[in-house]
Design a protein that fits this description.
Blueprint: H1 2-15, E1 25-27, H2 29-39, H3 41-62, E2 67-76, E3 81-86, E4 89-94, E5 97-108, H4 112-180, H5 186-220, E6 229-231, H6 245-255, H7 257-277, E7 283-294, E8 303-312, H8 320-386, H9 392-426
Length: 441
């Protein structure tokens, strides 16, 4: 009994979480996904990029409107200019201090034909940034759910190891009684003690993995350094593999945000051709100007104004504009090829994830069958050991096998959930295990 108390104290000290300065923050899987999508720095950067792209749209749209400019100056000359008309009679040719003010308003005319294309090009840029943000949020949701399930898997494996420690400790107590009766020897006790210590080491390693996983999850969620998390349990009932392999590929082509971003970038590249072609046209601007001067002499007109049209047309530039159009066309072709290749890659990714999830789903029945067999074999050996008909080697082998089978069943269950979640991400959806769809029995 004294040894039992010592082992229990050791396990309690090892398994209990380290003391925290504040109460752990309890979160669910849904909370983790929401926090990753809203607080992670990658999502924040994506939202900032959308703001920048929207500003570019406003800047392009503003080019349709007239511009208003003011230009003025004040000069102090070394001396004034006086023009002598006759002895004793003169007029001012220029004051020592002169000033002028020009107010100009200009309305682009020919540019309005291409500004619409430029605005649409920038709008497509906003669409691309939004699709990229959605892609980032989906990736973050997947990573948060994967980290969450990984931490729960480590905690479950720790509990499995603790259960094995409790069982082997009970066997050690029984072995002491058999030794006292002369049925077992010291070496049998040493074997059980060695097995117990090995299991305690597994508890230590699983607890360490769990602690590291929780801290990594907190960082992924954008929480302050040192935040302690308490993870709510998840319903690990295996959801069904959705649809067929072909349906998964079709859904990926239809729903993946990466493809929407590629489509927007292709549209941008095609609009870029029209923008480059606009350089062939003359630049026609309607202009009006008002001028006011001071100190320019008796013959200067203080106030003047005009309206008119200016034309600026580059007739020959040795092929520079053509080269710009050729570059834009090549960029559009490259964007189209990239879009097509990405669509094929997304379909292949969805097919691969579907096959992986289906395979993982099939392993659940295998590990469950293996666990039942191992538990029955362990039960029979336990009965024989209690009756003094089995050796400690038999018990250790049975205990090792049932612990391995429990760990395999736990890992298979969580790994299937992660594979299922990866399939959900591959078709363009956000993972959630709050209400999984159970597979038919």
């Amino acid at each position: 009994m004294k040894r039992l108390a010592i082992v229990a104290a050791l396990l309690g000290a090892v398994v209990a979480p380290a003391p925290a300065l504040a109460e752990p923050r309890r979160i669910t899987l849904a909370d983790a996904i929401a926090l990753a999508s809203s607080q992670n720095v990658e999502a924040t950067v994506g939202r900032v990029q959308i703001v920048a792209s929207e500003a570019r749209v406003r800047a392009a749209r503003a080019q349709r409107l007239p511009t208003l400019g003011i230009k003025g100056n004040v000069f102090v000359w070394n001396e004034a200019i006086e023009i002598e008309l006759a002895p004793g009679t003169s007029i001012s040719g220029r004051d020592q201090v002169t000033a002028s003010l020009d107010v100009t308003i200009a309305q682009p005319i020919s540019g309005a034909l291409v500004i619409g294309k430029l605005v649409e090009l920038e709008r497509r840029g906003v669409d691309a940034r939004r699709a990229e943000l959605e892609q980032t949020k989906l990736d973050l949701a997947y990573r948060a759910a994967e980290a969450y399930l990984g931490a729960l898997q480590a905690a479950t494996l720790r509990d499995v190891a603790q259960t094995s420690v409790t069982q082997i400790e009970a066997n050690l107590t029984r072995a002491e009684a058999l030794e006292a009766a002369g049925i077992l020897f010291d070496v049998d006790l040493l074997r059980l003690q060695a097995q117990r210590d090995a299991l305690i080491q597994q508890v230590l390693e699983a607890q360490s993995t769990y602690d590291v996983a929780r801290r990594g999850l907190a960082l992924l969620l954008g929480l302050p350094d040192g935040t302690e998390l308490e993870l709510a349990p998840v319903d690990t009932s295996p959801p069904a593999v959705p649809g067929t392999e072909a349906e998964a590929a079709a859904a990926a082509r239809r729903k993946r945000p990466e493809l929407r971003a590629a489509e927007a970038q292709l549209a941008q590249a095609r609009l870029g051709i029209a923008v480059q072609r606009a350089n062939y046209y003359p630049n026609v601007v309607a202009i009006g100007q008002y001028s006011h001067t001071e100190g320019q002499g008796a013959f200067a007109i203080k106030d003047s104004a005009f309206v008119g049209v200016t034309v600026d047309w580059n007739l020959w530039d040795w092929g520079q504009r053509k080269a710009g159009v050729d570059e834009a066309r090549a960029n559009a072709r490259a964007a189209g090829l990239s879009r097509d290749a990405l669509a094929d890659a997304m379909a292949l990714d969805a097919r691969s994830k579907w096959v992986a999830a289906s395979t993982r789903r099939q392993t659940l029945a295998v590990t469950a069958s293996g666990l039942r067999a191992a538990e029955e074999a362990h039960r029979l050996q336990q009965v024989r050991f209690d009756a003094g008909a089995a050796t400690t080697t038999d018990v250790i082998d049975a205990e090792t096998e049932v612990a391995r089978a429990r760990a395999q069943a736990t890992i298979a269950r969580y790994q299937y959930l992660i594979a299922w979640m990866a399939l959900v991400r591959a078709v363009g959806d956000r993972p959630s295990f709050d209400a999984p769809t159970p597979a038919p029995p």
